[in-house]
């Protein structure tokens, strides 16, 4: 029950974040969506994800506020407002049709198919010695995934430093 | 089943924001909402009713835990999402410095 | 009003920051070191450690924070984290294959020193995530300041 309430809250906050005109209010509303997601993870029995989502949300909120403060854009509506909205809704409709086919194949909520995870849960402690099974999976059973993730993170950091620093040199001349 | 549909609604709001809005910051926010919805969907699939968190305690033999595999995948996806968001913010700041606006229809050079 | 030349926020914020920033850093280190026993791990702990430095920077201005950890040092630490993670993975070849947990059986479970290579990997990931995010944040701040000077 509280899961539905939290999801409705997140949907409401997301609509506010999309439709409000002020950029700062929009950023704060998306922060509300993220904190609601953090509580949802806690209810879904995922404490690792809740901690990570909380701190990541705060850091991204700081960065987005630094980016948007004192920069506001008045809402402009061009002549093709109706056409744009209709084409967007058509695209979302296509997406929903295909999503409906996918939804019928999913397992029922509350009864997951745990063909692989059963072995992780039963033998994780003997094989790795770690009592936090999520930690055991990301660093032992599925270490390759984490290595790939580290590569992506490294690339993103290098990308940000390149985009920012190149401009700095040109301006510094 | 209805909880999956609510999650899809959240995804569609983010998709609408990405496709329809013309402000770069709004597009970044829309991508953030899409990312939240996808993460939530992964965790919802692995949820087991009356299950426990996947952390063992001393001297317990109960094994009705929620699925730890989607949680492990989502844990890395959250941090990647933060890095990608920061990357997009860097590009947006750069465009603002160059063109003086966040409106993508006014940024002429990006048109192909 | 006379403090306007001084960078950073007011005296109240600075005093509170002096008390709390060490606690936040300590909490991050705790989350990292106990990643294999309790919820948490390298990702969350790394972000918390980055947040403690961001907190310092927001309260005291960028000079004080950069004196503690400059951008070059952050980049070096990030590369060090990546290399450490890769070398721990390569050390698995001692036992036969990549990412082999070669001393998993040493040490009793539910202890701090247990679980083989998992704490080492947690520390490596924490260095990588924390230093990387802090480097990004410093880059964004320095860029804005540079723009203001012109």
Report on this model:
The complex is a heterotrimer of chains A (173), B (112) and C (150). With 173 residues, chain A is an all-alpha fold. Among the domains of chain A are: 1-72; 132-173. Helices cover 79% and strands 0% of the residues of chain A. Chain A has helices at 2-19, 23-43, 47-68, 81-105, 117-128, 133-141, 143-172. In chain A, helix 6 (133-141) crosses helix 7. The model of chain A has no long low-confidence stretch (mean pLDDT 82). Chain B is 65% helix and 0% strand. The longest helix of chain B is centred in the C-terminal third of the chain and has 32 residues, at 68-99. Chain B is elongated, with a radius of gyration of 19 Å. With 150 residues, chain C is mostly helical. Classes of the chains: A mainly alpha (173), B mainly alpha (112), C mainly alpha (150). At the A-B interface, helix 1, helix 2, helix 3, helix 4 and helix 5 of A face helix 1, helix 2 and helix 3 of B.
Attribute tags:
heterotrimer, A: 173 residues, mainly alpha, 7 helices, 79% helix, 0% strand, B: 112 residues, Helix Hairpins, 3 helices, elongated
Spatial separation of the terminal alpha carbons of chain C:
26 Å
Beta content of chain C? under 5%
What is the end-to-end distance of chain B? 43 Å
Strand runs of chain C, count: 0
How many domains of chain C? The number is 1
CATH architecture level-2 label of chain B: Orthogonal Bundle
Largest binding interface between chains: A-B, 82 and 79 residues
């Amino acid at each position: 029950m509280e899961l539905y309430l939290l999801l409705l809250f997140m949907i409401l906050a997301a609509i506010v974040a999309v439709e409000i005109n002020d950029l700062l209010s929009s950023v704060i509303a998306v922060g509300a969506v993220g904190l609601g997601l953090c509580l949802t993870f806690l209810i879904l029995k995922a404490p690792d994800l809740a901690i990570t989502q909380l701190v990541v949300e705060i850091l991204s909120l700081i960065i987005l506020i630094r980016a948007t403060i004192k920069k506001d854009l008045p809402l402009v509506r061009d002549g093709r407002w109706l056409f744009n909205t209709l084409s967007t809704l058509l695209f979302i409709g296509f997406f929903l049709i295909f999503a409906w086919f996918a939804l019928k194949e999913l397992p029922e909520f509350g009864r997951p198919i745990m063909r692989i995870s059963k072995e992780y849960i039963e033998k994780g402690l003997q094989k790795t010695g770690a009592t936090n099974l999520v930690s055991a999976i990301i660093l032992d059973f599925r270490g390759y995934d984490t290595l790939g993730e580290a590569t992506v993170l490294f690339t993103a950091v290098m990308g940000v430093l390149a985009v920012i620093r190149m401009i700095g040199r040109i301006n510094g001349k | 089943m209805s909880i999956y549909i609510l999650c899809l609604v959240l995804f569609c709001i983010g998709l609408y924001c990405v496709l329809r809005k013309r402000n770069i910051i709004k597009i970044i926010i829309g991508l953030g909402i899409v990312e939240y919805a996808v993460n939530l969907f992964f965790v919802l699939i692995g949820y087991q009713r009356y299950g426990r968190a996947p952390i063992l305690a001393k001297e317990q033999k109960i094994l009705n835990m929620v699925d730890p595999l989607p949680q492990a995948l989502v844990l890395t996806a959250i941090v990647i999402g933060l890095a990608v968001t920061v990357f997009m913010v860097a590009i947006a700041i750069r465009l603002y410095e160059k063109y003086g606006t966040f409106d993508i229809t006014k940024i002429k050079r990006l048109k192909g | 009003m006379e403090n306007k030349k001084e960078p950073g926020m007011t005296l109240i914020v600075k005093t509170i920051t002096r008390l709390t920033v060490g606690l936040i850093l300590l909490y991050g280190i705790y989350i990292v070191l106990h990643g294999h026993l309790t919820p948490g791990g390298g990702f969350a702990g790394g972000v918390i450690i980055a947040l403690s430095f961001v907190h310092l920077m927001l309260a005291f201005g960028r000079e004080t924070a950069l004196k503690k950890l400059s951008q070059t040092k952050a980049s070096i630490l990030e590369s060090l984290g990546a290399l450490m993670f890769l070398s721990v993975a390569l050390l698995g070849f001692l036992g036969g294959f990549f990412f082999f947990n070669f001393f998993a059986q040493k040490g009793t479970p539910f202890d701090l020193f247990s679980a083989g290579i998992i704490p080492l990997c947690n520390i490596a990931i924490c260095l990588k995530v924390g230093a990387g995010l802090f480097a990004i944040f410093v880059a964004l701040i320095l860029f804005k300041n540079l723009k203001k000077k012109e």
